[in-house]
Predict the structure.
Amino acid sequence: MSMADPASPASPANPASPASPASPASPASPAQKLLEVRDLRKAFGGGDGATEALRGVSFDCYGGEFLGIMGASGSGKTTLLNCVATTLRPTSGTVLLQGTDISAFSNAQLSDYRGSRIGYLFQGYELLDSLTGSENIILPLAIHNEQATVISSRLSELAAFFEIEDVLEKFPAQMSGGQKQRVAAARALIGRPDIVLTDEPTGALDTRSARTLMEKLALLNEQERTTILLVTHDANAASFCSRILFIQDGVIFHELRRQAPGEERADYYQRILAVMTHLNGGSANVL
């Protein structure tokens, strides 16, 4: 895989001061906006019983960025991710991908968007038990009738990168949790999507498997400029991100950036914990 220079993150904000959700700062590098979320709102139910999961969320995600979304259980982070993925329709607001409003897509356009323009990595793997590892990985390309030579080349590339050549002919029941999640990651990336959405990808993994997965995702982001949007409650996983948005009660509360040049991940991790403590009264309360 080719090497590219990662974007230089800006200095972090003061953890005691909430970030303005309406005008997030842009990265120091001249990267272009890939994803624009504007005044996104989502309510469940109606009338007096309505619950607002999102209450006017606005932010940008830049091409080649590794952006994290953190928050307590019920804060709205997964709802936000699902609105971006179009599996939930927002009550109001807009989501723009490369300047195009995806909420205005037809059913056919939505199918193409979900199948080729985004990759999705779930906490629970979501592999098909009746398919082998290789069959699970290539499924998105097979559905879209991609050429066999293209499928074979991309499969070999990703299998080598994620070190899963030995499980390609195995079924999910024959794989460890870490192997299944790396197979799922390869599937999310097989079509070279514009952005990869990851929902608690380390939640079902042991510490070693979680670290391996995050190191692989970080390397893809660094070398291939793969744009990743990560939703997590795990400060260790979040410490691989270049920027983190903290969401509370359906709004963006704070923004944290990895310091330039090359802040140690251990130091960044401690700053993440400090924000989590301020946000929730202790990191043990962040679920």
Q: What stands out?
A: Residues 1-30, 282-287 have pLDDT under 50 and may be disordered. The longest helix spans residues 207-224. Residues 40-285 form a domain with the Rossmann fold fold (CATH 3.40.50.300). Strands lie at 33-44, 51-62, 66-70, 92-97, 100-101, 118-121, 195-199, 228-231, 243-248, 251-257.
